[in-house]
Amino acid sequence: MPREESISVLVEQALNGQRRALARLITRVENRAPDSVEALALLHPHTGRATLVGITGAPGTGKSTLVNALARTLRARTFTVAIVAIDPSSPFSGGAVLGDRIRMGDLAGDRGVFIRSMANRGSLGGLAAATHDVVRVLDAAGFDYVLIETVGAGQSEVDIARTAYTTVVVDAPGMGDDVQAIKAGILEIADVIVVNKADRPGVQNTVRALRAALDLGHRFRLTGHHGSLIQTPAAPPPDYDFWTVPILQTVATEYTGLDEVVAAIHQHGAHLRESGIWAERERQRIETELAERLRDALLVQWTAAHAPDALQTIVERIIKREVDPASAVRALIDGNKPEK
Ligand SMILES: Nc1nc2c(ncn2[C@@H]2O[C@H](COP(=O)(O)OP(=O)(O)OP(=O)(O)O)[C@@H](O)[C@H]2O)c(=O)[nH]1
Ligand SMILES: [Mg+2]
After folding, report:
1. 63 alpha carbon – ligand 1 mean position (Å)
2. Fewest C-beta atoms under 10 Å: which of 22, 81, 142, 273?
3. How many CB atoms lie within 10 A of CB 117?
């Protein structure tokens, strides 16, 4: 391996702010290259400092424009910003896609901004795990903020949102039925709601609809349970604190309302830290990640140790009703051939 490709050199260069090294390192980590394990081990002591913000919402609400405006606003306050744009439908991976070029026009040449697109991996381990590691690299590289943009409200978006400490859900007027536009699941993960395109007619209706939806089930959310809906209890448990989800208005194309968004992100971060929820969330994230990695690693290990068609053979036997899935798995991990 040539010296400049050695993973420890690459890590060192990335930690020293060399962008090309950082880009290459991210590619290795995203692709789960064999030496990415070593890279992540070297990076880990440097992580845990960045503010991780997820930005999600229905297609076309202006998420990319908002992320761009948010990055500019943060840069104006001398914070450094990394943007991870996740496009599940994109056939591209790791390279610049159209959205990046649009953004680069605005933020081009600014060394305090780093933009990365990720396409759906569609494979074992998946996008959420890959995103997690890429965010970790950017955190270690010293960016003050990592903004993670995802589309929609599918399970993978929810998983990705859990990478972040603060999740901003974006809606806009004229997206069809105002409450439908934000699918039920997405409000549950919102820490801050932004109604973008506030220059468009119908903005008050959108705000009202969102407030009504929040009042129905989400007026008070126990922030210790990220992503889960909990009804207002008579008295809060002593270790929890309530967070009232703010509904803000922006015109991202004109950078209007961005100071309020930054303020809400700061307030939410402060709330998480002061209440101790930050630490609890981090613990939950690590527990979940560890379990997922273990599961993935065991499957990879098992697959490597068995004939390429071993799982397929069992699938056939299950279809023929010779064995059931639960018994098959028990036999497999006991090292036996699954019997009837
Ligand atoms: N009028 C108005 N248009 C906006 C505003 N923000 C974004 N747009 C426009 O809305 C369109 C979609 O913006 P994007 O930022 O690409 O939206 P997105 O949510 O990232 O879209 P996807 O990534 O495809 O889901 C673009 O034409 C933007 O110029 C705004 O505040 N007001
Ligand atoms: Mg976008």
Report:
1. 6
2. 273
3. 21
